[in-house]
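To close the section, here is one more complete example, presented without commentary so you can practise reading it yourself. The ligand is 6-O-phosphono-beta-D-glucopyranose.
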Amino acid sequence: MKHPGCWKMLTVAMCMALLGCLQAQELRGHVSVILLGATGDLARKYLWQGLFQLYLDEAGKDYSFSFHGAALTSTKQGQAFVAKVLESLSCPEDVAPDRCAELKGQFQRLSAYRHLATSEDYVALSKDIEAQVQHGGLREAGRIFYFSVPPFAYADIARNINSSCRPGPGAWLRVVLEKPFGHDHLSAQQLATELGGFFREEEMYRVDHYLGKQAVAQILPFRDQNRKALDGLWSRHHVERVEIIMKETVDAEGRTSFYEEYGVIRDVLQNHLTEVLTLVAMELPHNISSSESVLQHKLRAFRALRGLQKGSAVLGQYQAYSEQVRREQQRPDSFRSLTPTFAGVLVHMDNLRWEGVPFILMSGKALDERVGYVRILFRNQAYCVLSDERWVADQSQCLPRQIVFYIGHGELGSPAVLVSRNLFRPSLPSESWKELGARPGLRLFGRPLSDFYAYRPVREQDAYSVLISRIFHGRKDSFVTTEHLLASWGFWTPLLDSLAHEVPRLYPGGAENGHLLDFEFGGAQLCFSQQQPEQLVPGPGPAPMPSGFQVLKAKYRESPLISAWPEELIAKLADDIEATAVRAVRRFGTFHLALSGGSSPVPLFQQLATRHYGFPWAHTHLWLVDERCVPLWDPESNFQHLQTHLLQHIRVPYYNIHPMPVHLHQRLCAEEDQGAQTYASEISALVANSSFDLVLLGMGADGHTASLFPQSPSGLDGEQLVVLTESPSRPFQRMSLSLPLINRARKVAVLVMGRVKREITMLRRPDERSPSSVTEHGC
Ligand code: BG6
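Output:
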């Protein structure tokens, strides 16, 4: 169709068809949809069908349409491709075959393919749309550009649309973008900045197709329509845990070039599962039909996500994966991929509604079944006197209580909303959801289907059809805004960085996985339930287990030295601290504990928070050994570490918590604010003889302890109890207890973890391996 005359004829034909389909009624305007990548896989499988559905839903109402398939494919091939796809379109079940054929005919006449490559092509496209609108005597309402193209093509297309394809004044422009939206926070930011140079935020619709899945799209309406019943239930007081799951049987064969770059966390958890999580966890706006307030509330949920650590995730990789990468990407025989194809992640929210509730996100390829769901499992606080054979689903409080948004596939084979009968009878819109018929023998989550009030959509719709309709109606809350995107990457990127070199557990795939991938959690940690069987671990010999190493007691500078693998070391230190605390409280009524920062004490804090229920926290005062000159809420702050890993899990009276005053009068560690002196006075006032019961120190690889550095002499002697010091690394300014003050403590423990610190402690073991150590002594 290179010949201009042909295009004119087609335009006229389309206009005629378009007018033919319009009933004699006032139109609000004409909408042109331009599908970029019209000959691609996504377009073939979903997008053309979604556009047809849009036409079925909207044509004859207020708008007229034209659909332009565009791609780099030659005109002849493209036309043939589009003609074939259009022929295969289907109508919903309730449309009679004759009517369907008629509607399909109309849609075919409104659709055309065009080769779109150069900037001139874009200019011509815009002119043709204008001509079409003019010919039909129509008013242009808007243009939708659907980018079904790889991200490297985005910038060029965006530039062309912005410079020559914007509609005239009064009409809107909507551009629809498909993932991946970057690879991490930085690349997402760069991509967002680039696109922001061409489009306004309100013009961009980033698709996460999970937001179009019917069960997912029903989460907020369900919460809204059942507010009364859910008000008392939707919180940490009643919810035991939330599971957000997407299991797949397929593997990554055929797309390893994409997958090898992304892996399961970037491919599924960062987007689909996180979006679902925010819909469950966000505060419900008063008016859920306001896109703006939904988006605002969702953003707040993103901000309440507690930062993840390496221990928050388990990773797996199906065994055939590396071989597939080697084959598809011509990698050498020695190549072993570290890309995870399976991940389980434990997420927590730091807010009053959800504090302490585990949100489990899990997805994987080559698993035993294909299924997706969100399951909210409620605590059971009842005791039932009647024997269990007499328990009746809608009366017994002892049966499991759960709400499930069943996204699809699995045993049910369709989307559904399930509510245990012993919770409440839910209300769902009857025009779109109907009760599921009985399915004897079918069990879900260990219970017969008859235990649930179960609903399925009246008409099943593909996610893309749902989203295309939402784009048309300008429902921005079903899409990913730039702010949300960056918030999500901001949450996932640190975990991805920390896991970059982690070796995933190999699994055979399918039902053979058995219980190999089962995982369990405690506190903030997640781990596989079973140890890795040796036959799946490549490499020589079994790895040494921590328990194979004896705790060694010796002397170090006249004090006891305990040297062990980290697990035992931390357990021993935590026991010693608790024993010291109990003794101090018994003798003096209080226990003054000064803690240092950095990463070494983190496992100790976790140990104290999760294993030491006899600790006399109510009588313990917590002090800081040193602090970085950053605000207390900064992730670099030592206090923030203490807060995240210890304080929020225990009950210490707030007046017993003594952060260092590094941030006074909106300034950081300014001499004139006298923060060091203030802290020293507080210590003198509360701690008898300014002698802490226990000071826990760490040691830097350069030999520094607390924030006392070898090259900066302040604080090593003299009268001052608390000093400002300078660190050779960022943040340069620090506040620290002085050495004389530390040496007044009844007990000092130095916790040294990690191989790199071996030299500095000048410890030598007869063994090659280097355990960590703690010494208890005066400096
Ligand atoms: C895509 C991922 O976003 O979602 C795929 O890139 C995954 O890896 C797919 O298979 C799953 O979507 P659905 O709709 O089949 O559940």
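Once you have examined the tokens, check your reading against these statements. Confidence is low (pLDDT under 50) at residues 1-25, 534-551, 763-770. The first strand starts at residue 29 and ends at 36.
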